[in-house]
Each structure stands twice: as C-alpha cells, then as structure tokens.
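Aim 2, interim progress. The first record below pairs a target sequence with its structure tokens.
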Amino acid sequence: MITTGAETKLIQCLYISKLFKKVLLILKLSLNITLLTLGILTPNSLFSSDAIYIKPKAFITGKDIYLSNISKLPDGIADIYLTATPTEPITLTPDEIYKLLPSELSDRKVLGSSCQIIPLNKKFLKEDIEKSFVFEISEKEKITPDDIRVTYLGEDLFFPEKGVELKWGNIPKNITPGQKIFTLDAWKDNTRVYSVRTKFLVEFKINAPVANRRINRLQQISENDIIYKQIFISENISDLFTSNVKGMTSLSNIEEGDLIRKKHLREIHTVERGSNIDIVFYEGNVFISTRAIARESGNTGEKIKVQSKSSGTLLSGIVTNNGQVKIE
C-alpha cells in the first residue's frame, strides 16, 4: 500500500496523540499511587467520579454544617446538610466526611488531608470584651482596673462555645494611651485555631493640673487659678506639670477646664537673675536709691540677693511689686 505525504503526516499525528495520552495516563497513575501512599486517596476513590475537595479549615456560624461550608461544590451538586455544628473545634478526615454524604453521592471521592471545623457559636458582647481586656491590662501593667478605661471600637465577636482557651495577644510591654489594635486568640491543645483583630481606645487615669478659671496671657498664676483633678487621657501627654505652678506666668490665654501643660506656662519672675534693678533703702527720714544686679530671681514678697553696682557689696532685700528690691 502506497501512502501519500499527507497521509503519512496524518498517521504520524495520530501516533503522537496516542503516545501523549499514554504518557498522561502513566503520570496520572503515578500521582494516584503517591496519593495512596500518603493516605490522601483510598483505593475505591480512584475509580469514582468528580471529587469533593475539602477545605483545611471551615468557620461555621450556623447551627448546621452543609457541604458548601467545608468544600467547593462540584458541578451539578446541590448543597446538602451533613451534620449539626459541634460546640467545640473538631477535625474531620476525608473518610469521616464521606460517611456523612447521602447515598446519591456515594460514587464521589473526598480529597484533602482533613478539615478543621471551628464553630463560632458563642457571642461576646461589647461589654464582655471590654471587661476581659481591662482585666488583662490591669494584670499586665500592675494597675487597678479603676485606673484604666477601654472602649471597644468593633462589632460583637463570636468564638467556639467550648474546648478553647481565649488569650489576648499583640500586647506590648508598656501600653500607652490611644487607639490600639490587639488580637484575641482561641487556643486548643497548645495550637491557635482562631484569631480576631480588635481595636480599642485605651485611656489612663492621671492626676493633672486644670485651669479653675480663665487665665489671661502674661497673668501670674495664683493658688486659686489651678486645681488638680483625676481625669482619663487618651493620648500620651509627657509635658504635664507635676510640681507646683504657683507664681509662674501664662504664655497664652488658658480657658477654664483646660489641662495645664508646660508649653502654657513659664517661670517669669518679677525680678530675673542677672537683670539691672533699682534697690532702695529706708531708715527713718533717710531714703537711698541706687542701681544693682540681681543675683537671684524672685517674685513680689520674696527675699533675694543683689549686688550694688557702685560698691560691689552683696546685699539682701525683698522684691516689691514694681520690680524694685527693698534692702533690709
């Protein structure tokens, strides 16, 4: 039989096609043998129709588990009920899932190593979350719960009802006020099975100086201008006064109720050290006035040292309200 060139090429293509199919079959058999060795496939599953591929982890919020919860539904399969949702995390093997399938899906193979079922069937309200976090922070920071206030900025959380231990994570050694993000983790058998990011506004109680009334710019602070209050702060303020501010001068207008910060006040004295001043001396009908250099700073009524410019003598006197020093 004599063949043409076109027929020869066609025969060669058919031969290559058959050879390619054989190679694919060999590769598929080799892969199946490997899966059998690893226990991912069972002998019966090699001859089943379209497989059901299970997810490694499934989070269940309802009362029942459906096939779509734990796998991607193969084409042509409607979603079906498998079992009730457990109260604690469990792990289902492919064989266990296969036994849950209805009889009409008995020809399907179930593939995958296992599926961890995480039931999210216990609700934690905003108040529960805040109370738990305050306890965690007070224990960690060694402070009383009354000295810290937290506001949870998220929605209600859901965790397994049983079988897990909840632990707060991502908490730094020293917590500062402000908006912070932490994690709440569910642990089972020393393994974290579920984690949620949570956002809080953290506030700490401090004893801070507050304006008792309006304080005008360049006004000298009196005892009645400032009161100390216990307040909660939501920012890290490092320039609050911890010492007495009486006698200091306001650098700007301060409204009633404002926190007194170091940028608001400055210790401006009636007489500043190093300044040239007038000193006066009274003795009966004798009045002497001369120039001097202040060797100390002082406010009205305070005793400071001055040095006469004419004689260099070091003297002591009381600061008057007009900026002079009256020699004693």
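The second target in this work package is listed in the same format:
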Amino acid sequence: MNYISVKVRTSLMHTIKTKTKYWLSPQKATALLALIALVTLSLFAHVRAQTLAQGFGADKSLERGIIVVLDEEDPSRVKPATLDRVEDLYGVIINQNDASVTLSEEGSDVFVATNGPYRVLVSTQNGSIEPGDFITVSSIEGIGMKTNNIAPVVIGRAMTGFDGSNAASTAQAGDRTVSIGRIDLDVLASNNPLQKPAEANLPDFLRSAAEAIAGKPVPAARVYISVFVILVASVVSGSLMYSGVRSSIISIGRNPLSKKSIIKSMIQVILVGLIIFIIGVFGVYLILRV
C-alpha cells in the first residue's frame, strides 16, 4: 500500500514538474506575456472609450459645442471662453447623452466634456479648418477657430474640416463677417504646440490694438512692421508739412505780392503730406489684415 502511495505521489510530482517546464518555456512565457499585454491594451482602450462629462451651473443657456472656462469666482459654474482667458480653456458643452458617463449634482445646468471626440462650434476667423488643425477660442465668445502661433492653449485637434460653405450661421469678428459651423473635435485642452515663445514679448496695448484692427490675433512681427510703417509715414508727412508751411510763411513775408501762389504751393505740400500719411495707414491695415 505504501509502495503504491509513493508511486502515485512520484507520478504526480513528475506530471507537475513536466507541466511547469512546459508553461515556463521561453516560447510559452513570451506568448503568455503577449496575451497579458493584449488584454491590458484592450481594457485601456475600453476605458478610454468611456468618455466622461461633468455637470456644471451656468448663468445662461449654453449651446451644444460652446467652448467654456470655469467661473473664476465659482469653479462649480462655467461660462463661454473669451480671448482674455484663452489660457484657462477647460472643455466643451455637450448633451448629457453624448458621454458614456456623466457626473452631476442637483442644480447642474449644462454638461461639459474635457476629453474625447465631440461636435464643437468653430468659425472661419483664422481661415478654413482642415483635419489635424489645432483649435483655440476666437474673438467670438465660446466659438473656436484654427489656432496660430500666438494662442498659448488649444482646446483640441480637428477631426473634420470646415471652410464656411456649409455654415450654420454668420457673426461679426471685428469688422469682418465670418461663418460659423460645427466640426468633430478630439477635445483635450493643452499647450499650443505651434506657439512661438518670442511672441510673448509683444506689449499688451499693441496686441489689443492690432487685434481690434485685424479682427483676429496677429503675429508680433507684423505688429512691429506696422508700427515702423506708421512712424515713418508720420515723420515724413509731418516733416514735409512743417517745412512747407514754414517756408511759405517766410516767403510771404519777403514777397507779399506772391501770396496767392505761395499759399497754393503750401496747400499742395500739405495735401502731399496727408496723402503720404494716409498711404501709411492703409499699408498698416493691409499688413495686419493679410
């Protein structure tokens, strides 16, 4: 009996040892690790697909697709994003059913998504949008546009394009009329990869003046060129008019009989100076708007 028991135990140990060697062989270990990695990636993809939205309060009704920031005084509320708070871009307004999971408290007025693919309102303020373009907020409250190298933060990357041909509406951006529509956007607020650090050296008053004229953010290089052009035009026209008036007054004092012709010449000089100044102003307008 003991002999049989020992034999069975030995056979069992041999079987366990053989199976262990089989499963711990290099080929089987590699296959097992690959299977674990595949399952992990599948679970991660599933979690990533479960988009999350959170409920917030709002002072007014916000349309689906509006880009928002958190209220500075009450982080439980949101409001449409503006250029002066571009660094605080938070998310976009969605319908409650757009997200797989929603978190909300009593009194929530809107739902905001901070990551995932959603429909977002954009404009053609900075040109047509192509798939892959980064999107930031425009000068129109809560509406996005293709970013440039000035905006410090983007709200996501375009998955579809918009050229204004299928616009849902239009709006004024400065003295321009721009088209507004919707695109699919991979929402995720982040630093603008296109931003150039040197642009931060532009004084605020120059930036504000340039944006007011152009109706959109303007690169610092164009702003400085515009300042140079207007200064040169002002100096040239001012010098021309000053010297023309001064010489005319002196000429009239020396030769009163030629007063009419001298005044006529003075007026011509003044007109030339004004034309030079106007050309300078028009040149600045073109530099900022192009």
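The longest strand covers residues 176-191. This observation will shape the mutagenesis plan for the next reporting period.
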